[in-house]
Design a protein that fits this description.
Blueprint: H1 2-37, E1 49-52, E2 60-66, E3 72-73, E4 84-90, E5 97-103, E6 106-110, E7 118-119, E8 123-127, E9 136-141, E10 152-163, E11 169-181, H2 201-215
Parallel strand pairs: 2-3
Antiparallel strand pairs: 1-11, 2-4, 4-5, 5-8, 6-7, 6-9, 9-10, 10-11
Length: 216
């Protein structure tokens, strides 16, 4: 009878140890191996420009901003996948587009000619002529406080006409990383290889409160 208890005890101990080792491998070892064995794309720098021309064979085309996927890969832990999605619908008779913008995360939006940012609705619309020589500006983050963001990545959208190699006049859209506030902590990637904001949340909130008090 005593031997049976000892056997059961060893079995429980073995299963517990195996479970612990599996969790250790899955949560720590495997992500580290994954990051070490693949080339991780660095986050974009301020000033980087992404040029986008809608394919002539398509009437609808998409441009997206996300954490690890999309046309702009932020590598920021606070950003969602498909955080911002731009859908371009071409006018069949001329080089003009309707731009429908959808969000899957916190976004502040400043339309062309508007002086201030406001919380973006679930969808917004622009016409391509509105951003020719002007900008529509977006700030993306994980939280909005009183119509403002403590930490954010700022992206501007503008457009201009260009002449392609085939001699056609096309509208080129340009997305620019205009600001990353307060920056990303490149020395502390998470287990998936993405980066947190450059300040801890408490310091960032204190800075935000000081700025608000000054304006008042």
């Amino acid at each position: 009878m005593q031997d049976g208890y000892i056997y059961l005890l060893w079995l429980v101990l073995f299963l517990s140890s195996a479970g612990f080792l599996w969790v250790l491998y899955k949560e720590i070892v495997y992500p580290y191996i994954l990051i070490s064995t693949k080339e991780v794309e660095p986050p974009p720098e301020v000033g980087k420009v992404y040029e986008f021309i809608v394919s002539e064979s398509e009437r609808n085309s998409f441009f997206s901003v996300g954490k690890t996927t999309g046309n702009i890969v932020t590598r920021c832990s606070a950003i969602q996948e498909d955080h911002l999605i731009f859908q371009f619908k071409k006018d069949p008779s001329q080089e003009e587009y309707d731009i429908q913008i959808k969000k899957n995360g916190a976004v502040l939006f400043k339309p062309p000619r508007m002086p201030t940012y406001s919380t973006m609705d679930s969808t917004e619309k622009l016409e391509s002529h509105e951003v020719i020589g002007k900008t529509a500006d977006f700030r993306i983050s994980n939280v909005i406080l009183k119509e403002r963001m403590v930490n954010f990545i700022e992206i501007s959208l503008t457009s201009k006409f260009i002449i392609t190699k085939s001699g056609k006049e096309r509208l080129q859209f340009r997305f620019t990383i205009t600001k990353i506030h307060p920056g990303l902590n490149l020395n502390s990637p998470d287990k998936t290889g993405n980066f947190p904001w450059g300040k801890d949340e408490q310091k960032a909130e204190e800075s935000f409160q000081e700025q608000e008090d000054t304006e008042e």
